[in-house]
Design goal:
- By secondary structure, this protein is α+β, with helices and mostly antiparallel strands.
- Helices cover 46% and strands 15% of the residues.
- Helix 1 crosses helix 2.
- It is flat.
């Protein structure tokens, strides 16, 4: 979960970006102030936000942002390959900005508190290589999503 200090810093960063930069046009759509705000929030956070959380953060900065604008913007960003959608076993969908630096990571999600933690492992590379070598597949994507209970929730 995010600390209040991080949320304030994120809010300030998003507001600052609004004043200076233009969000890139996505799939021929014009860049609006509200799309730019949603883009900046996703780019600035290290969290995995669902649409409702993204909507609340955007509304904290600009009360004119509508839930439908958030859904449409997420859809455009996904289609443009700028955002990854994570779908968990309870059909909860979260989004994270693609950073483009080749950082391959996976996710662990607490079934109690909903916290999502990123991790790296060589097993993913080994599995990708094994599938390629033994089955003749060219692997384009491999994601490992783990669910369970974080240390805090497991103690309850």
């Amino acid at each position: 979960m995010s600390s209040p200090e991080f949320h304030i810093a994120e809010k300030n960063a998003a507001a600052e970006h609004l004043e200076h930069d233009a969000a890139p046009p996505v799939l021929g759509q014009r860049s609006t102030r509200q799309r730019k705000l949603i883009y900046d929030i996703l780019k600035a956070t290290h969290e995995h936000l669902d649409v409702e959380s993204l909507y609340r953060r955007a509304r904290d900065i600009d009360s004119r942002v509508s839930l439908s604008t958030v859904y449409r913007t997420i859809s455009l960003l996904k289609e443009a390959g700028m955002v990854d959608e994570l779908i968990f076993e309870d059909d909860r969908r979260c989004y994270e900005f693609k950073n483009g630096n080749g950082y391959q990571h996976h996710h662990i999600r607490c079934l109690s508190c909903g916290d999502i933690v990123e991790f790296q492992t060589d097993y993913a590379r080994q599995l990708r290589d094994k599938v390629a070598n033994e089955m003749g597949f060219t692997v384009e994507s491999l994601k490992i999503d783990v669910s369970g209970y974080c240390e805090t929730c497991a103690k309850r």
